[in-house]
Design a protein that fits this description.
mainly alpha, globular
C-alpha cells in the first residue's frame, strides 16, 4: 500500500483507540472508599458499558470500514444532544457544555468520517491498479 493509504488506514484506528481510552477514564469515578471492594469493582465494570459498545464498533469498523464508520459517526451524533442537555443542566453554561460535548462526542464523529474516507480511498486505489 502507498504511504498515503497507510496513513489514512491507521489514523482513524489510532484516534478511535485514544477516544475509547478517554471515555474509559470516566468509569474511574465509580470507586468510593466507603463501599466494599466488590461493589466498587461491579460499579466500575458497569460504568465501562460505553467502552464495551465502542470496542465492538471499533472491531466492526476495523473489519468493515464503511459500516463501522457510519455506526461510529451515528453514535457520536446521537449522543451529542443527550450529553449536551445533561451537562447544561448541571453547570448552566453553554461554553462549558460545548467544550464537554466537543471533547466527548465530536472525536467519534470525526473517527467515523475518517473510517468512511479510508474505505473510499482504498476503493479508489484498487480501481487505479
Amino acid at each position: 500500500m502507498k504511504t498515503k493509504i497507510l496513513i489514512i488506514h491507521w489514523i482513524p484506528r489510532i484516534l478511535c483507540i485514544l477516544a475509547i481510552l478517554f471515555i474509559s477514564l470516566f468509569a474511574l469515578d465509580s470507586f468510593d472508599p466507603k463501599l466494599p471492594v466488590w461493589k466498587q469493582i461491579a460499579g466500575f465494570l458497569i460504568h465501562l458499558t460505553p467502552t464495551y459498545l465502542l470496542i465492538i464498533l471499533l472491531y466492526v469498523a476495523w473489519k468493515w470500514e464503511l459500516i463501522g464508520g457510519i455506526a461510529i459517526a451515528i453514535v457520536g451524533v446521537i449522543f451529542t444532544p443527550f450529553i449536551y442537555s445533561m451537562n447544561y443542566n448541571m453547570n448552566h453554561s453553554v461554553w462549558i457544555t460545548l467544550s464537554i460535548v466537543f471533547s466527548i462526542t465530536v472525536p467519534f464523529i470525526i473517527v467515523g468520517v475518517l473510517f468512511i474516507w479510508s474505505h473510499f480511498a482504498k476503493k479508489r486505489e484498487k480501481a487505479k491498479a
